[in-house]
Amino acid sequence: KKKKNRKKKKKKLTKKSKHHSEDTELQQINPDQTTKQYNDNHIVSITVHESDLLLTDGQVLKPIVEVHVINMNSGHYLRKTSSTEETVSSVQTQVFDYHTNRCITPQWEETLHIPEPPSHIFTHDTVLLFEILDRSTHHRPSSLYHNHTTGSIGRVAWAFLKLFGPNGAENIGKKLRLQLYQPRSESRPVDKSVPLLMTPRY
After folding, report:
1. Chain-centre distance of CA 22, in angstroms?
2. Reported pTM
């Protein structure tokens, strides 16, 4: 009975998506040890493992993963603890080259670091947005996020992670599979502090 329920839940999630899932892991670390307490002498790390097969037109050649830290209440990028104006910068993996790696599923196995106190990031008001982008030169530039100002980028898929579940359980310090969704096709100017994924349609 438990297996049947899990299958039904997965079907419900995939109705809005043409993609599968991505493995990621979030934790706080310092150079010597990892603890479960929110020690602000530590830093926040996000390990991006891999993605299932991406359902694209076959033109995606060099995917990367970019992670954005968002305040759910405002829909804006989370502000730094050291500034009332500056926001937490997004972080991204290195390029996964299909031709070089000769693999049909992207595998990054890369740890990204956010230089903010864990107590500032690990709250019920924070959500992480994961975006898979293609760095291939044939794609037109993306305006999904304001800091995409150079290079040629194509949007492939996106996912989100709430750091706490509805029952208060932490999604921290363990490997998770995130549902990938197809990005919006339209592009238009937006407030620089608000991701396009968080803005309403007109």
Report:
1. 9
2. 0.72
